[in-house]
Amino acid sequence: MIVVDGLTKSYPATGGTGTIDALRGIDLRIDEGEVFGIVGPSGSGKSTLLRCLNLLERPTSGRILLRGEDLSHLSEGRLRGSRRRIGTVFQQFNLLHCRTVRANVEFPLEVAGVRRTERRDRAETLLELVGLTDKRDAFPSQLSGGQQQRVGVARALAAEPDVLLCDEATSALDPATTEQVLDLIATVNRTLGVTIVVVTHELSVVRRICTSAALLDGGRIVESGPVADLVADPVSRLGDALLPAGVGEQNGDVTALVTARGSAVATPWLSRLSRDVGVDVAVVGGRVDRVAGTDIGKLHVRFDGDVDRDAVDRFFAVLPDVTVAWTTGVVARVGA
């Protein structure tokens, strides 16, 4: 669906001497129908990457492919047409306050020259999807923040885009409203099949709705992949941030990180491990949470005495949705 290949973006430095490299060789693949999260600290390049993805900025070098078409080198005329394939939901809503809710949703279609009856039908369908049919004739000033963002989602979907970009779409909302908007975004993904890219600094957003994610830092992709795989990786920086399992220093003990998904979270594998393999196991940290719509549990365990690692590996190899990674010598953060 979306392939970012060697993307760079540089700006002139203040004073006109040298340049500032905001993006440094970004390589990224976002598959069709995914909800893909891009996270990172302030100044990591998230906003710059988003402006390149929605074609508001031309990259300095590299390519952005959308279903095989290179968007980064289109002429201005073709670029205007391609922008309709990408909808954007903004942090500050950016609604037209002189227009009603329905007129806001119709606006992109009006600009595109779509007939009035078609615009109205499309707007009504989308307002039903976002649960605002009864607010069609209201003005933005009469809506709550969550309702305004719902209008923003409907407007971004008006031109039936291939991709929906969400630019910190919930950071201006309270926690309860944030959950409602995230649930709406997930519903849009399921019902319309739209590929969604979520740019955020909030890990809770990634945990709740994203199927895959990438960590951006210093203008580079540090790591990326399916969220469940990142969480299961004992050396993944993003996975540890998404689902930490606190554990103290191991002092050379033989330790492992066991990750279970879905129904396997409730499987009594710990007692079976002790019984079937004949090892003494102590739990030194752990957590269970819902990540990307799936229950995922991470448990740090310590083996007392001699342990046959091959036997332990064989034990876990036949358990569905349970994996083990040896972490001997790893010093994790206490209370992480």
TrEMBL record:
Annotated SMART domains:
AAA
Looking at the record, the residues that make up the ABC transporter domain are: 2-243
Enumerate the Pfam families for this protein.
ABC_tran, NIL
* Record carries keyword Metal-binding: no
GO MF entry, a single one: ATP binding
Q: Does the keyword Acetylation apply?
A: no
User: What keywords are annotated for this sequence in UniProt?
Assistant: Amino-acid transport, ATP-binding, Cell membrane, Membrane, Nucleotide-binding, Translocase, Transport
Looking at the UniProt entry, the stretches that span the membrane are: none
Protein name (Swiss-Prot/TrEMBL): Methionine ABC transporter ATP-binding protein
